[in-house]
Each structure stands twice: as C-alpha cells, then as structure tokens.
Amino acid sequence: MINSINSSDRSQTLFTNEKKSAENNIVQKDETAAILELGNRKAQNATYSKPASRRNTNEISRLWEEAGKTYESLRAIVEQLIVRQGKKYENVLSGKEQLVVDETARAEAEELLSEDGELGVKAVSTRIVDFAKALSGGDKSKLPELRAAIEKGFREAERILGGLPQISRDTYDEVMRLLDEWANEE
C-alpha cells in the first residue's frame, strides 16, 4: 500500500480529452479532464492502531525490558554450556559440533521453566496479557484483535518449530484464561 507520494502538486491533470478542429488545427480541451488526486485519502493501517496517548508506554517499555533480560539469561546458559564444553558457537550453530546438555545447564533451564521461573507458564502468560492490555490502552473492545494476534503468534511458533512443546501449549491455555478473566472483570 502506498501511504504517500512526494510531490509539490498533489492534484495533477494526467489526461485530457483534446479535440482538434479540422478547419484551423486548434486544440480544444474538454473540461471533463481525468484528474488523479494523490494524498487526499486517509491512509489506513492494516493492523490495529490506537493513539499513543492511550497506550501505556511505560508498561510496554517495562515489559520489553523484562523480556530482554529473560532472553539474555537463557542465552547466557547456552553460551556457558558452549564454553564449558570447549566448543565454538559457529560450529554448534552450523551443526559441525554437537552440544551435550550437562547437569548445570539442565538445572538452570529447569529453574527458568519452573512454575515460578522467568520462562514458566505463569510468568510468560502474564507478560503476554500485560503487554496486550498495555498495547490496547486497557480497551476491552480490542479483545478479539488481541486474541487473534496472540493466536497467530502461537501458530507461527508452532510452524517454525514443527510443533509446540507442552509448556508452550500450557502457556497458550493460560493466556486465553487470563484474557477471559480480563473480559469478565467489571
């Protein structure tokens, strides 16, 4: 979709109906010329947008930062595992070297994925719903759009991963339960 075209003259005559007079070869312009007007239609977003003043930008920033920290802690576990085994990151990614999950990494991952862990069902589902609420500005009328976006995200993850592990399916169920709970709040 083209949202704008830069031009100093946004209304330009592109075609005219010209008639030449046989007697004096004078060109007469028909006043019903076709005119193309650019930039007069209001651009429409393909996705939901809400005025920024309604969004909870502080909460969005906080959640974004929290998600970044969680990602970094998981990344650190993998990096430490690679270092402990004397492997090269590039070789592990390319499949030239295999990584064996040791007990230290297993314990760290289990803690992250536990019920009260940063990547556990409760924490992740709460972050997803809090993020949805912040983006919508708390507008419950946007619940269908929020649900659709969340469902699309889970479907995309499932497609990329070739299926979802049980923890992800449990997280999805909890997200939908929390959205239902929010919908029923008065």
Q: How would you concisely characterize the structure shown here?
A:
This protein has six helices and four strands. By secondary structure, it is mainly alpha-helical. It folds into two domains: 10-41, no CATH class; 57-180, no CATH class.
Name some characteristics of this structure.
4 strands; two-stranded antiparallel sheet; 6 helices; elongated; mainly alpha; two-stranded antiparallel ribbon; 186 residues
Distance between the termini: 40 Å
Radius of gyration: 28 Å
Percent in helix: 40-55%
Weakly predicted, low-confidence segments: 1-41
Overall outline:
elongated
How many structural domains are formed by the residues?
Answer: 2
Largest sheet: 2 strands, antiparallel
DSSP strand tally: 4
Word description of this protein:
By secondary structure, the protein is mainly α. It folds into two domains: 32 residues, no CATH class; 124 residues, no CATH class. 53% of the residues lie in helices and 8% in strands. It is built from six helices and four strands; from the N terminus they run E-E-E-E-H-H-H-H-H-H. The strands form two sheets. Strands 1-4 form a two-stranded antiparallel sheet. Strands 2-3 form a two-stranded antiparallel sheet. Helix 1 packs antiparallel against helix 4 and helix 4 crosses helix 6. The longest helix has 28 residues. The protein is elongated, with a radius of gyration of 28 Å. The two termini are 40 Å apart.
